[in-house]
């Protein structure tokens, strides 16, 4: 996806797609496959090996429609082992092509001819080439290939903590060696069809896969639901930046937050 061919294959991004979604359609919230696909994996599909960090990560997004209505998405991204030998072989081929191109560029920077590669590369270029081949390599017989995958929950209200807990429990059930008491489909059906929205001003307790989950909904005269932890805002922005943002809000200035 995109023109990032200068990067090693494991650092490139690939096109992703929606594998499945349930239910197939909701009248008040039709499924926007392109938007959900882009917002679930904004950087595209990515690959890792056993030497890379593969900790699950959670993020959220908002889809705002033409009439101003909003739906909220909560995404847990994780990595699972690639079982297709065809994909593993293709990754190794990409690496062979990439390393050949890098080798050629190192030689070109040394002004060497193809007949005297070994003798013409100086010590610095040889060292950089060795590092390149050591860190930018994938061996199908030695390395285990993993690919990114995500599960997403789309809701009418931003119940971040409840959705986060449910997705984490669902992920544990998927990856656990010991399966949960009921089939996974039972828990998905439960949260989609049997767990109602809590009435305004009330709390709701329902059971996830392993533990109970609580979500609260503000009353009509209370502030809108903001289920995002304030501590993370301080950690990400810092005290001075947060005070500056708050000052800009009070002065009714336009604010743009940009991040990766």
From TrEMBL:
<protein>
    <submittedName>
        <fullName>DEN5B protein</fullName>
    </submittedName>
</protein>
<feature type="domain" description="UDENN">
    <location>
        <begin position="1"/>
        <end position="260"/>
    </location>
</feature>
<dbReference type="InterPro" id="IPR047278">
    <property type="entry name" value="DEN5A/B"/>
</dbReference>
<dbReference type="Pfam" id="PF03456">
    <property type="entry name" value="uDENN"/>
</dbReference>
<dbReference type="InterPro" id="IPR043153">
    <property type="entry name" value="DENN_C"/>
</dbReference>
<dbReference type="InterPro" id="IPR037516">
    <property type="entry name" value="Tripartite_DENN"/>
</dbReference>
<dbReference type="InterPro" id="IPR001194">
    <property type="entry name" value="cDENN_dom"/>
</dbReference>
<dbReference type="InterPro" id="IPR005113">
    <property type="entry name" value="uDENN_dom"/>
</dbReference>
<dbReference type="Pfam" id="PF02141">
    <property type="entry name" value="DENN"/>
</dbReference>
<dbReference type="GO" id="GO:0005085">
    <property type="term" value="F:guanyl-nucleotide exchange factor activity"/>
</dbReference>
<keyword id="KW-0344">Guanine-nucleotide releasing factor</keyword>
<dbReference type="GO" id="GO:0031267">
    <property type="term" value="F:small GTPase binding"/>
</dbReference>
């Amino acid at each position: 996806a995109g023109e990032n061919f200068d990067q090693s294959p494991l650092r490139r991004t690939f096109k992703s797609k929606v594998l499945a979604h349930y239910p197939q359609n909701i009248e008040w919230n039709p499924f926007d496959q392109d938007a959900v696909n882009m917002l679930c994996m904004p950087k595209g599909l990515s690959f890792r090996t056993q030497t890379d960090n593969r900790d699950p990560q959670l993020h959220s997004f908002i889809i705002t429609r033409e009439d101003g209505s909003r739906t909220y998405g909560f995404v847990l991204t994780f990595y699972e082992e690639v079982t297709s030998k065809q994909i593993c072989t293709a990754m190794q081929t990409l690496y062979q092509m990439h390393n050949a191109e890098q080798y050629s560029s190192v030689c070109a920077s040394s002004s060497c001819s193809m007949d005297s590669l070994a003798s013409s590369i100086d010590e610095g270029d040889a060292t950089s080439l060795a590092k390149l081949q050591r860190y930018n390599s994938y061996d199908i017989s030695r390395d285990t290939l993993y690919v990114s995958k995500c599960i997403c929950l789309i809701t009418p209200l931003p119940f971040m903590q409840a959705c986060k807990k449910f997705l984490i429990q669902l992920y544990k059930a998927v990856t656990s060696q010991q399966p949960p008491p009921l089939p996974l489909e039972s828990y998905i059906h439960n949260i989609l069809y049997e767990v109602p929205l809590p009435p305004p001003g009330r709390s709701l307790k329902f059971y996830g896969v392993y533990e109970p989950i609580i979500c609260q909904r503000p009353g009509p005269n209370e502030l809108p639901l903001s289920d995002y932890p304030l501590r993370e805002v301080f950690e990400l922005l810092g005290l001075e930046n947060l005070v500056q943002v708050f000052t800009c809000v009070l002065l009714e200035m336009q604010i743009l937050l940009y991040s990766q």
